[in-house]
Design brief:
Length: 247
């Protein structure tokens, strides 16, 4: 990236916070996958964990992280590609949870599930980058792209292992903190792979129709935070009811 690009430290911190909270919530939801007593319950648990991990932890972190970067020029985000990047994150994380949790737990399924999830997260990131509309041409350092892909796959395998092996609250908090570092590491490595060359400040045709806003990053953080708090509240109520019934 050009030397004049800078990062908004507040948004960088918020991107890490949302990735940690999203990972913690997804790990809480993943507990229900092996405990499911029917195919329908298992599917619902997989979709819930995949949605929170993919959208709440990874995509939200990605988009806030994108907004944290001052590109040195006006930028907007093409809506359909931005939405598709979130869908890819959701589907790939759901597939990862589904594959890793099928039948008896094994390292082979963990690797395959992590591979699907990691490649999906990588695709989400670079599609999100392609959604940027600005007066510049983008090019990529493929060596750094490959490193970011490797980080995404390793982080995904770690996420799936943690999801099915960590149960205590302290362990889950520690796991979420580690996942936050991994998710942010992949994102900011991917950002480092990009170079931007001025095209004469010629803006794309639909530039004005793109997503933008002075406080868009903070708004996304607040919305996702509210969603995660509601989900954690519902999970807490359910756990208390189960504990009361077991007495």
């Amino acid at each position: 990236m050009p030397d004049h690009q800078t990062f908004n430290l507040t948004l960088v911190v918020l991107s890490y916070v949302v990735s940690v909270l999203g990972s913690f919530t997804a790990l809480q939801l993943a507990v229900a996958i092996p405990e499911a007593q029917s195919t329908r319950q298992r599917f619902g648990a997989i979709v819930a964990a995949g949605a929170v991990m993919g959208v709440g932890a990874i995509w939200a972190m990605h988009f806030i992280g994108m907004l944290a970067c001052d590109m040195g020029m006006p930028v907007t985000y093409e809506l359909s590609m931005t939405i598709m990047s979130a869908v890819i994150a959701f589907v790939s994380c759901s597939l990862g949870f589904g594959i890793a949790s099928s039948g008896t737990f094994g390292w082979g399924k963990l690797f395959v599930g992590g591979l699907f999830m990691g490649l999906g997260v990588t695709g989400m990131h670079y599609l999100g980058m392609a959604a940027m509309m600005m007066g510049a041409f983008l090019s990529y350092d493929m060596n750094i792209v490959m490193i970011s892909m490797l980080i995404a796959v390793v982080a995904s395998i770690a996420a799936l292992w943690l999801a099915f092996n960590m149960r205590g609250p302290v362990q889950m908090v520690g796991s979420a903190l580690v996942m936050g570092v991994a998710v942010c590491g992949m994102h900011y490595t991917g950002m480092a792979a990009v170079s931007m060359d001025d095209n004469g400040s010629q803006l794309p045709t639909h530039f004005a129709d793109g997503i933008r806003g002075d406080h868009l990053g903070e708004t996304i953080f607040v919305l996702v935070l509210g969603m995660l708090i509601v989900i954690l509240g519902v999970l807490s109520v359910r756990q208390r009811r189960r504990a009361a019934l077991s007495i």
